[in-house]
Amino acid sequence: MPVASPPVAPQPTDAAAPLPAHLPAGLYPELKRRVRRAGLLKPQPRYYAAKMVLTAGLAVPAAVVLLHSGHPWWQLATALYLGAVFAQFGFLGHDVGHHQVVRSGRLCTALELLFGNTCVGVSSSWWMAKHNRHHSRPNRTGQDPDITLPVLAFSIGRARAMNRAQQLVVRRQHVLFPVLLLLEGVVLRFSSIQYLVMERGRRWLLEVTLIALHLGLYGWLIFSQLGFYPGIAFVVVHQMAFGGYMGAVFAPNHKGMPVIEDDSNVDFLLEQVLTSRNVHPSALVDFAFGGLNYQIEHHLFPSMPRNRLRLAQPLVEAFCVEHAIPYCQMSVPRAYRDILAHLRTVGAAAR
Questions:
Q1: What is the 3-state secondary structure (H, E, C) of the chain?
Q2: What's the CA gap between 134 and 255, in Å, rounded?
Q3: Domain extent listing, the chain
Q4: What is d(CA 51, CA 28) in angstroms, rounded to the nearest whole number?
């Protein structure tokens, strides 16, 4: 694996964050030509068919334990394990939405509804609308929904613009951040249902029905097997495990990286690379992160299938080194340390 160039230092400053706006014309098209010549942009339906079967198989042990074991410690372990399985279904829904499995058509829509609404209980149309806004303007204040949050600030300008009540939370956000991640699963579901009810897109009724089916079957299976109070405990642990897992995977992608607080016209390649962070790959990390540890490559080429990202990574890194573009890649512990340090620095500005 090639040696990574020095990572970009997090810049919790006002929009004065010194991001150069432009690169020589034609760099991104040239990079895309190299990636396409390597055959890395073609959909991978066979790979994903196997991945779907494998992920469905991961749910079988949880179902067996839930149906046949009444021991509370086994049920607790099952709830934690099932949180990770739900996250893997979520990764599949993410990849389908980016047209990595098939480019478009009814099969693509059916798979989005299957993995988003039916398996996870989150609106697929809401997720892609939100996620596409993030991809188009990563780490831009007021434009990226992933950093425009009511109780967290990722830049000093955002922290200082908050009201006093919000600033009280922001001052301790580096402590609260891991706790808030545990609520991510509940927030995803609530936000997606709210979106469907308020926006009422062309398939909103179908999506609401599938989410209701998910919640109904989920609740019936758990409470019929465990009873009321153990069932409540199972749901709480499971949803916290799911939210914590998803949050822990998504946090290293952009949190603590440079934030663009003005409306300047930054070069596409530069914006995607400088606001993204890769996590050092390994077989375990690639599986646990659903391929999102290759965040730079994913943002440059969102339709690139998951199993092609590891092949694109050295190509993209070499291209960045060739053109003196900082390329950030680090270990998992280092990424989390940098995120918490960044949140603490920004929180101090709210004082």
A1: CCCCCCCCCCCCCCCCCCCCCCCCCCHHHHHHHHHHHCCCCCCCHHHHHHHHHHHHHHHHHHHHHHHHCCCHHHHHHHHHHHHHHHHHHHHHHHHHHCCCCCCCCHHHHHHHHHHHHHHHCCCHHHHHHHHHHHHHCCCECCCCCCCCCCCCCCCHHHHHHCCHHHHHHHCCHHHHHHHHHCCHHHHHHHHHHHHHHHHCCCCHHHHHHHHHHHHHHHHHHHHHHHCHHHHHHHHHHHHHHHHHHHHHHHHHHHCCCCCECCCCCCCHHHHHHHCCCEECCCHHHHHHCCCCCCHHHHHHCCCCCHHHHHHHHHHHHHHHHHCCCCCCEECHHHHHHHHHHHHHHHHHHCC
A2: 13
A3: 27-349
A4: 31
Q: Which residue has the tokens 């950030």?
A: 328
Q: How confident is the model at residue 34 (pLDDT cuts 50, 70, 90)?
A: very high
Give the number of other Cβ atoms within 10 Å of residue 270's Cβ.
20
Tokens linked to 280: 């050092």
85-117 tens-digit pLDDT: 999 999 999 999 999 999 888 999 999 999 999
Q: What is the pTM of this model?
A: 0.90
Residue 175: closest CA among 1, 48, 2, 348:
348
Two tokens, residue 343: 């949140």
